[in-house]
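Design request, tokens follow.
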């Protein structure tokens, strides 16, 4: 790059996406009032996976394994998507009441997707390619029942 020492620049001075680069981000929220007493809520989230640098190969020099990484943030972790549902039932239909209360049954991550929060690599043995491990947060449906009231 204009006579500079390229070895001291990140990614040899070439463009790379930032760790927070998410070209696609979609959130859909809807609430259906099915009757005066019942309502249903749907929440769907989709995000493009964030950029990551992967080890592409390894080689050995003087019995020491050296990992050869890809260009900076060349790859992406898998895309993130999740569906949440909730069903609410009001306990009283009276117009004038001192306490407003309802029961809510909800399911977080309905289809139990194990969205990757991070991907990291470990070298299990000196002469083996690094093994990928995907860290997922809440990779199964979470069911909740709550009682809410206002006075």
């Amino acid at each position: 790059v204009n006579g500079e020492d390229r070895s001291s620049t990140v990614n040899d001075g070439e463009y790379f996406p930032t760790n927070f680069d998410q070209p696609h981000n979609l959130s859909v929220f809807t609430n259906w009032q099915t009757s005066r007493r019942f309502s249903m809520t749907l929440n769907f989230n989709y995000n493009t996976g964030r950029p990551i640098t992967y080890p592409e190969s390894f080689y050995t020099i003087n019995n020491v394994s050296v990992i050869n990484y890809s260009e900076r943030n060349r790859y992406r972790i898998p895309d993130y998507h999740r569906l949440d549902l909730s069903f609410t039932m009001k306990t009283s239909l009276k117009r004038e009441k001192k306490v407003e209360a309802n029961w809510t049954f909800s399911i977080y991550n309905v289809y139990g997707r194990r969205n990757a929060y991070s991907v990291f690599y470990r070298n299990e043995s000196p002469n083996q390619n690094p093994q990928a491990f995907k860290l997922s947060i809440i990779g199964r449906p979470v069911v909740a029942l709550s009682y809410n009231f206002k006075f």
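Comment from the thread starter after seeing the answer: thanks! The two ends are 67 Å apart (CA to CA).
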